[in-house]
Specification:
Layout (H helix, E strand, L loop, with lengths): L3 E10 L6 H19 L3 E9 L3 H9 L4 H18 L6 E4 L3 H16 L3 E11 L4 E3 L17 E10 L5 H10 L4 E2 L1 H10 L7 E2 L1 E3 L8 E2 L2 E6 L1 H6 L1 H4 L7 H6 L3 E6 L3 H15 L6 E5 L2 E3 L2 E2 L10 H8 L1 H11 L6 E3 L1 H31 L8 H8 L2 H17 L3 H22 L1 H4 L6 H21 L5 H10 L11 H4 L49 H5 L3 E12 L2 E10 L3 E6 L7 H4 L3 E5 L5 E3 L2 E3 L2 E2 L1 E4 L2 E4 L14
Parallel strand pairs: 1-2, 1-12, 2-3, 7-13, 12-13, 14-16
Antiparallel strand pairs: 4-5, 4-6, 6-8, 9-11, 10-11, 14-15, 17-18, 17-20, 18-19, 20-23, 21-22, 24-25
Helix pairs in contact: 2-3, 6-10, 11-12, 12-13, 13-16, 13-18, 14-18, 15-16, 15-18, 16-18, 18-19
Bound molecules: 5'-O-[(L-methionyl)-sulphamoyl]adenosine.
Length: 640
C-alpha cells in the first residue's frame, strides 16, 4: 500500500491580508508535499482560515461589514492566493464550515464528560489583540509583548481545560520522542515552558462579550475560545472521527508553524489530543520569522511584503526558490529585494541557467540537437565520477528534504550543479569537437551532461515546479509524466539516445539591480511639490491638508537608492517617511531637526518601504531645501 503523508499549515486569521510570512509557511508545506509525491507517497496537504473570535468581529466592524461577509471576503483572498503561488493544497478548511463546527462541539463534549473541563471565576489581564489573558510574568513593562499595549483587567466566569493534569505526561512524551518538536531549539523552548507549573486554559467566552464563535455544547451562554476551535481543524478537515481520510492520514500528520504559535501547538494541542483520546501528532516543524530591515513585519510599521507583487516582478519560481533557499528552516531571516536579486543572478541565472543553456546549445551545435549514443568502451574514461556524484546528491537531498532542512537540500543540489559546471570545464567539449578521433568521448560527455540535467530537473521540482517542467520539455521528456519520481531519478542513463531536443531557452533572465522594483524610487515626494501654476483653492481645501510639526528621530540611507533617506519622525507618535533628500542632507544632520510633514498623505510604497507622509521643502534647481520653524514647537502641532 502507498505510504500516506499529511502536512498542515496554521489556519490563518482573517483579520489581515496574506503577506510574505503566510506565503512562506504555505510554500514550505507545498514543497514538502511535492517532495513526498516524488517519493511516490499518497499526499494530503491542508491549509485554511481561522475565522472566529473578537479580533475578527472588530476587523469586520472597521470595514463596516457583518462578520459573515467579512470572513468570506478575506478567506477568499487566502484561498485564491495559493494557486497563484504554485501551491497545490488538497483541501482548504474554514472554521466556519458546519462540519468543522460539529467536530469542535463533539470533542468539547467528550472532554467535558471525561471531567477535564470545569467552570470557575477568573480575573486577569486580557490583551484584545492576542485574545488571551496574560500572566504578570509574561507582560513586558506591564504591556503585551506583541502589541505593546497595556492589557485590560477583566473578571468573568468561564470554562477551563485542566491542562495541569497532563503536564508530566507531556514532558515525558517530548523527552521520549526527540523529533516530536523540531528543530531542537523549539523542543527546548517547549520544555522550558513546562518547567513552570502549567496553568489551566480558559476555553470559553461569555456570549455577552462575544457571539461570533462555536456555542459550547454544555452551556449555550458561552462560545468556545479560539484555540480550542482552531486547533481541531487538523482533524475535522479529515472527517474525524469516522472519515476514511482521518484513518489514512492522521497517523502520519506533520504540522508546520512559525515560532509565534509554538505554545498552542507544542503544549495545548498535544494535551487536547490526549484528553480527547486522539493519537498524538507525529512532528511539529517550527520555523523562524521573516523580518524586513531587521524589524518585525507589521501593518503599523508599513513594511508588509506582498507575495504577489514579488511574484509578478521576479517570477514565481525565483520567488519560491529565494524563500526556501534563503531561510534556514528554524531561524529568523531578513527579507530584502537586494538578496532576492542576488540569488536570482548567482544561483539561478548563473549556476543553473547557464549550465542548462550551455549544455543544450552544445548538443545542438555538435549533435544537431539529438541525444547521443554512449559507447561502453569510452564511457568509463569520460565519466569522471559524475554518476557517483549524482547518486550522492540524490541521497543527501532525500535525507535533508525528509527532515525539513530544505535550505540544505537545495545546497546539495547546487553542489551537484557546480560539479556539472566543472565537468564541462574539465572535459572541454569544444576541444573534443575539434578532433574527429574524439567523436565518441564527446558523445559520452554530452550524454552525461544531459543526464545530469535530467536529475537536476527532478530535484528542483518541489521548489520550482514550472522550471522543472520546462527543463523536462527541453530534455525531450513529457513534463506530464512522473519524471520527478525519485526512483526514476535514481536510474542513471534513463534518457533515450536518438531523442530530438528542442532549442535551448533562457531559464532565468538576469535582473539588473535597480531595474525593477527600484523604478518606483524616482517617485519621491519632491515630485509632488507645488509649482506656480496650480489652480486656486478655497481655505477649506487648504485645511484638508494636515500639516504637522515633527522631529526627525532617526535617519538612514537606503541601499541602492542614492536619492532617498528613510526617516523616523515624531509627530506626537512615530512614523516612517521616505524623503528624496539624500543628495542635500546627511542622515546625521537630520536627526533632531524639526520639519513639516504632510501628515494625511495617502501612504505610498517607495523602495519597498511604505512612506506615511512627506516632508515639505522648497525645491529649486539645486534640489529640495527643507522647510523648518524659526523656534522649537511641540511635535504634532498643526500648521494653519
Ligand atoms: N490563527 C492562528 C493559527 C491557528 S492554527 C490552528 C494564527 N494565525 S496567523 O494568521 O497569525 O498566522 C500565523 C502564522 O503565519 C505563523 O505561525 C506563520 O506560519 C505565518 N507567519 C506570519 N508572519 C510570519 C513572518 N513574519 N514570518 C514567517 N511566518 C509568519 O496564528
Amino acid at each position: 500500500m502507498t505510504r500516506p503523508f499529511y502536512v498542515t499549515t496554521p489556519i490563518y486569521y482573517v483579520n489581515a491580508r496574506p503577506h510574505l510570512g503566510h506565503a512562506y509557511t504555505t510554500i514550505v508545506a507545498d514543497v514538502a508535499t511535492r517532495f513526498h509525491a516524488m517519493l511516490g507517497e499518497n499526499v494530503f496537504f491542508l491549509t485554511g482560515t481561522d475565522e472566529h473570535g473578537d479580533k475578527v468581529v472588530r476587523a469586520a466592524k472597521k470595514e463596516n461589514m457583518t462578520p459573515r461577509v467579512y470572513v468570506d471576503t478575506i478567506s477568499r483572498l487566502f484561498r485564491d492566493l495559493w494557486p497563484e503561488l504554485g501551491v497545490n493544497n488538497s483541501a482548504f478548511i474554514r472554521t466556519t464550515d458546519p462540519d468543522h463546527m460539529a467536530v469542535v462541539e463533539q470533542v468539547l463534549q467528550k472532554i467535558y464528560d471525561a471531567g477535564d473541563i470545569y467552570f470557575a471565576e477568573y480575573e486577569g489581564q486580557y490583551c484584545f489583540g492576542c485574545e488571551r489573558f496574560y500572566t504578570d510574568r509574561e507582560l513586558v513593562d506591564g504591556k503585551c509583548p506583541d502589541h505593546e499595549t497595556e492589557p485590560e483587567t477583566i473578571k468573568e466566569s468561564n470554562y477551563f481545560f485542566k491542562m495541569s493534569r497532563y503536564q508530566d505526561w507531556l514532558i515525558e512524551h517530548i523527552r521520549s520522542n526527540p523529533d516530536f518538536i523540531r528543530p531542537e531549539r523549539y523542543k527546548n523552548e517547549a520544555l522550558a515552558f513546562l518547567n513552570e507549573p502549567l496553568e489551566d486554559l480558559c476555553i470559553s467566552r461569555p456570549k455577552a462579550r462575544l457571539k461570533w464563535g462555536i456555542t459550547l455544547p454544555f452551556d449555550s451562554n458561552y462560545v468556545t475560545y479560539v484555540w480550542f476551535d482552531a486547533l481541531l481543524n487538523y482533524v475535522s478537515a479529515l472527517g474525524y472521527p469516522d472519515g476514511e481520510r482521518y484513518q489514512t492520514y492522521w497517523p502520519v500528520v506533520q504540522h508546520i508553524v512559525a515560532k509565534d504559535i509554538l505554545k498552542p501547538h507544542g503544549i495545548y494541542w498535544p494535551i487536547m489530543l490526549k484528553a480527547a483520546g486522539i493519537p498524538i501528532y507525529r512532528h511539529l516543524n517550527v520555523h523562524g520569522y521573516w523580518n524586513v530591515e531587521q524589524s518585525k513585519m507589521s501593518k503599523s510599521l508599513g513594511n508588509v511584503v506582498e507575495p504577489l507583487e514579488l511574484k509578478n516582478i521576479y517570477g514565481l519560481d525565483a520567488f519560491r526558490f529565494f524563500l526556501i533557499r534563503d531561510m534556514t528552516f528554524g531561524l529568523d531571516s531578513n527579507f530584502s529585494e537586494a538578496a532576492l536579486i542576488q540569488r536570482i543572478n548567482s544561483d539561478l541565472a548563473n549556476d543553473l541557467g547557464n549550465l542548462f543553456s550551455r549544455v543544450l546549445s552544445m548538443v545542438h551545435k555538435y549533435r544537431q540537437g539529438i541525444v547521443p549514443e554512449v559507447e561502453a568502451a569510452v564511457e568509463k574514461e569520460c565519466e569522471l565520477g559524475l554518476e557517483a556524484d549524482a547518486r550522492d546528491a540524490i541521497a543527501e537531498y532525500e535525507k535533508l528534504m525528509t527532515s525539513f532542512q530544505f535550505h540544505n537540500a537545495l545546497r546539495a543540489v547546487w553542489k551537484f550543479i557546480s560539479r556539472m559546471n566543472k565537468y564541462v570545464d574539465v572535459t572541454a567539449p569544444w576541444e573534443l569537437a575539434k578532433k574527429k578521433s574524439s567523436r565518441k568521448p564527446l558523445d559520452v560527455v554530452l550524454y552525461n551532461l544531459l543526464e545530469g540535467l535530467r536529475i537536476i530537473s527532478g530535484l528542483v521540482y518541489p521548489v520550482m515546479p514550472d522550471t522543472a517542467a520546462k527543463m523536462q520539455k527541453h530534455l525531450g521528456q513529457n513534463p506530464k509524466s512522473l519524471f520527478y519520481l525519485i526512483e526514476h531519478l535514481k536510474i542513471w542513463k534513463a534518457l533515450k539516445p536518438g531523442t530530438e531536443l528542442p532549442k535551448s531557452i533562457v531559464l532565468f533572465p538576469r535582473v539588473e539591480p535597480g531595474s525593477k522594483k527600484t523604478d518606483t524610487v524616482a517617485k519621491t515626494e519632491t515630485s509632488g511639490l507645488p509649482s506656480d501654476s496650480k489652480p486656486e483653492i478655497t481655505i477649506e481645501q487648504f485645511s484638508a491638508v494636515d500639516l504637522r510639526v515633527a522631529t526627525v528621530v532617526q535617519a538612514e540611507a537606503i541601499p541602492r537608492a542614492k536619492k532617498v533617506l528613510k526617516l523616523e519622525v515624531d509627530l506626537g507618535h512615530k512614523r516612517i517617511v521616505v524623503a528624496g533628500i539624500a543628495e542635500q542632507y546627511t542622515p546625521e544632520e537630520l536627526i533632531g531637526k524639526q520639519v513639516i510633514v504632510v501628515a494625511n498623505l495617502k501612504p505610498a510604497k517607495l523602495m519597498g518601504i511604505v512612506s506615511n507622509g512627506m516632508l515639505v521643502a522648497a525645491v529649486d534647481e539645486s534640489g529640495p531645501t527643507l522647510a523648518t520653524l524659526d523656534k522649537p514647537v511641540k511635535n504634532g502641532t498643526p500648521l494653519r
